[in-house]
Structures are given as structure tokens and as C-alpha cells.
Design brief:
CATH topology of chain A: Rossmann fold
Oligomer: homodimer
Order of helices and strands of chain A: EEHEHEHHEHEEHEHEHEEEEH
Distance between the termini of chain A: 49 Å
Number of domains of chain A: 1
Helix content of chain A: 25-40%
Shape of chain A: globular
Number of strands of chain A: 13
Largest sheet of chain A: 9 strands, mixed
Largest interface: A-B, 25 and 25 residues
CATH architecture of chain A: 3-Layer(aba) Sandwich
CATH superfamily of chain A: Vaccinia Virus protein VP39
Amino acid sequence: MESETNTATLDAFHRGRFHLVQPAARGHRSGIDAMLLAGAVPDGFSGDLADLGAGAGAAGFAVASRCPAARVTLVERAAEMADYARRSAALRENNAFAGRTSVIEADVALAGKARVAAGLADRSYDFIIMNPPFNDARDRATPHALKREAHVMEDGMFERWIKTAAAIARPSAGLAIIARAGSTEEILGALGGRFGGIEMLPIHPHEDEAAIRIVVRAIKGSRGGLRILPGLILHRGTPGYCAHAEAVINGQAALFGD
Amino acid sequence: MESETNTATLDAFHRGRFHLVQPAARGHRSGIDAMLLAGAVPDGFSGDLADLGAGAGAAGFAVASRCPAARVTLVERAAEMADYARRSAALRENNAFAGRTSVIEADVALAGKARVAAGLADRSYDFIIMNPPFNDARDRATPHALKREAHVMEDGMFERWIKTAAAIARPSAGLAIIARAGSTEEILGALGGRFGGIEMLPIHPHEDEAAIRIVVRAIKGSRGGLRILPGLILHRGTPGYCAHAEAVINGQAALFGD
């Protein structure tokens, strides 16, 4: 039988400028993906941002920490993960921005009145970020239920999540998604007619390796087409991250250079 | 009134290893795109290759020139462009490979019995390359009819061309496409269920600029997903092309390194 104790760790991000309480082993633990996603928000961003599928809140907290005029709403379905986010917001270490964060326990896939009733009002956010469960449902499932919740992607998930993003976005709001390259077609299909001016930025572990992730950014209602930006290379031979990747991961630079 | 004289130029490619007769001004003139597309064919390729929408034959000739065991069929709808291809095949300068090339005058969008009757038999090619008309029909049309034929893309074109490619491809045949980044979604949609093991390689003019083209490669019947490869940078500050781009354009290296 599995232990049900909530063993947690306290992890530092952005070179100690914010901290996160995370489940030690049971739930999905945030890391580089969340930092890259947060980096897709422009440096000077000001306004209301929703982090859909926020987990323990790493990406949303990273935006709140880097962008002093951002008000961040973390949206998470799993009560246990939402509780970790609230515990992080209560930390003394996060005092500088925690007052600009809040948590909504809701399933991102909700629609219509149920979505509004859950606290996600139409046309109320200036930027939306999402780090949806990555692994295809056909992949081998992770054994633990809470970890599985964060990792297993259902068919049509991007369609439902991006539909929610379009509903809660104000006109010309930004959207940023981190996903696997294999989700490109589903993401572009779901953006169509809702978001345009799409920028796709591949993330490569090394300069001779295929992308392990893509970060896709788009603007609500834009008629602009797709642009594929030069990829971000994480490592170039020497130990550690390349300078730009390191700066993004540590909250000192925006991923798209804006 | 337009002049109807067929003023032609004789252009050298692959550092003079093959030559091409092209319309001086009226038709679509081939260049870097055709050389990059041809570069998507692996170095050791052996077998039957179809160049769909071949124009004057630049890409197909480039494959025949680089791959000594390739038999190349140029498929072109415009009689005038097909005639340029035949004139190029008759050049003394192309003796080394012209015997392994042939021309079919046919519309790539043909289907069923009409396609077979035009000379494109089912399951008869080991590799297919295509450089479809690039510009969206909504863009400003080019004034001249022959140039327009090569540049204006109709809605659903990739669906029709890739359907033809799937029909004439042998099992596990390769496919390579050069297109604009904005066509990504339509291409991925048309590949679905027909071709898999998809590799997408963005082409960037400089390392800080969005891709001007994508080269997409896939395998008939493969179940593999999409991989996004590190982009090819054409220029890095110094005049001329970067080493790898230069080698691909001159037929001395394969674009995907195979």
C-alpha cells in the first residue's frame, strides 16, 4: 500500500527569488518546462494572467516574480496540488509577489456556465499560459494516480484547453503553451480561428538534437500566420545551460527576447 | 501586349556539375529552394524518384546529379516548363545523368484513373519530392500567367498533392516537401494517416530570424510522430552561405546529414 503522507520539499527557483512547496515524490514536480513557459511572457507584462493547469504553481509564480505588474491566477483541478500552491503563496520567501497571486480550483476543460461558476469569467485575462499534461494516453501510464493526472494527455485536450483560453482571454490577449513537438498539429488546429500571429520556438537539448519541447505563443483574434523562430539550444558542450537558456530559467530574460 | 518569345538562360548549379535551361523572365526560376529540397534526399539514395511540380527540373536534376543510382521522373503540368526540362536533359553538360531522367506532363492534382492514365502509376516510386506553388491565393497575384501558375497556391493543394504522393509511393517510400512555415498545419494534416516518422527542418536566413521555409520529410506508412530538427542557418554574418548550407546547395552534402 502507498503511503498517504504529504511529504513535501521546499525548492528555490530564480536563484532563490521565489520558492515552491512541492510533493516530494507523489505529484508532478515542476522544473525547467515551467520556467521556459513563464519565460514566454514579455518582460514588461502588466495585467491579469491565468496559469491553466498550474500544478503547484511554478510557472505562474515565476511570472509574478519576474513581472512586478502581473496579477496571477493559478488554475488547478487537483485539490492536493492547489493546496501546495496556497502553501507556497503563504511562504515568507514569496512575500514580494504572493499578494498578486490567487488560486482557483477548477478543471480547465470546463465549458460555458460551469466554467464561469468555477471562477473563470469570460474575457478577463490579458495573458494565459498553459503546461498541459504531456504524455500521450497511449504511452505507458505512470503508476501513481496523482503523477498520472499531471502527465497523461487525453485526446482533444488541446482543443478543450485552448477553447477555455480563448473564452477567458480579453481581446488581443497573449497565450503561451509548452508541449511536445508531436502536439504541433493538434495545437495549430485548436488555435485556428481563435488565436493568430503564432510563434513557435523549438527547445533543443543540444544543437544537433531534435526538439524535446515547443513553446507556442499566439495572440487572440490576430490574423497573422505562423512563424517558426530559431530554436533555443539548452546545452552547448560545456556543463550547465547556455547563457540565454540559463537567463530564462533564472527569470533574468524573456524566452522570446521581449 | 506581352512578348511570346521564349527567351531562355542557361544556368549552372552544383558548381557546374549540372545546367538548367530556364525562362529568362516569364516563368518561375529555380534556385535555392530547389537545391534545399533536393538535399533532403539521402546521399546513398537508389531507386525511382518523382519530382512533383518540377518546373524546369532543378530539384530533380540536382538529385540525379548527386545520387548516381537515382532514376528521376519530372512531373510538370505546364507544357512550356516541361519543354525547358526536356531541353536541359538534352544538354551535353548534363550527359552524366540525363539518361536517368524523364518528363511526364501531368497535373499533380489528378486522381484515380486519370492520374494513372497520365503516366503516374500507383506504388511505383521510392522517393517523392515536391516544391508546390508557395504563395497563398489571397496574396497579391503576380501579373504574368506562367509565373502565377508556379507561385499561387490553391486551398487544399497540399491535401491533393500529398494524396498523389501517397498513391504513387511504394511502401516505406520517402517524401520531402519544401514550403513556407505558414503551411505547417495543412501539411501535417495531409500527411496524417499516409506518412509518418515526420521530420521538420526550419530554414532560417540568419540565426536570429524566423524560418523562411520548412523542409518536411516523412515515410509512407510509418507510425512515428513528428520531430522538429535544429534549423539550418543560411548566413552567419560573413558574406555567402554557412558551410553546411553551401555544401547542400552545391550538392556536396545531404540536408538532413544522411
